[in-house]
Amino acid sequence: MRPHRLVFRSKRDLWLTGAVGLSAAGLLASAISALLSGPLSPPVILAALGCFGGVGLCLGALNTHYVLDVHALRIVSTPFGWTVPYAELRSVAPSASPLSSPALSLDRLELAYVRGGRRRTVLISPDDRGAFIEELA
Fold first, then answer.
1. Which of 105, 97, 127, 123 minimizes the C-alpha distance to 14?
2. Would you call 15 exposed, middle or buried from its count of C-beta atoms within 10 A (0-12, 13-18, 19+)?
3. Edge to edge, what strands does the sheet with 89-95 contain?
4. Smallest Cα–Cα separation from 27: which of 63, 6, 57, 68?
5. Closest CA to 12 of 72, 102, 95, 86
6. What is the DSSP code string of 33-44?
7. Taking a C-beta distance cutoff of 8 angstroms, is the pair 35, 52 a contact?
8. Backbone angles phi, psi at 29, to 5 degrees
9. Is residue 2 scored above 60 in pLDDT?
10. Burial class of residue 122, CB neighbours in 10 A (0-12, 13-18, 19+)
11. How many Cβ atoms sit within 10 Å of the Cβ of residue 113?
12. pLDDT of residue 124 exceeding 90
């Protein structure tokens, strides 16, 4: 049983961080453009709100981190989150999969676990992979 909680930030690839930043900037520019384009009709207001929401999602993703708690691994990628109890964890393996995941680098770990009788996986990219694996073990 883990006596404390440890937090590992996601490793960040420069190109991926840049892509998230450019996406946020593009959404913000779209929102401002929609608001300045003319009369504020409901569709324009909704479009601007959607863009501002997208900026929040992009910037929140940059806060991706992994918490090793007493009974489970918690994966946080604002506004999303996963909890994987250690009892469900089956394997940890290196991966470079480009699939969408709570990881800001392609230097990833694939965690396989079983929940409700179904095998599931999640990809993560802790900044100190060796320490993360050691603590997880």
1. 105
2. exposed
3. 89-95, 108-115, 118-124
4. 57
5. 102
6. HHHHSSS--HHH
7. no
8. -60, -40
9. no
10. middle
11. 20
12. yes
Q: Which two tokens stand for residue 18?
A: 């840049």
How many whole angstroms from its chain centre is CA 105?
10
What are 10's two structure tokens? 């996601």
Greater model confidence, 112 or 101:
112
Across 6-10, 36-40, 95-99, the highest mean pLDDT is recorded for: 6-10
CA 107: distance to chain centroid?
A: 14
Residue type, 109: L
How many whole angstroms separate alpha carbon 134 and alpha carbon 96?
20
Given a cut of 70, is residue 3 above it in pLDDT? no
Per-residue tokens: 134: 């050691």
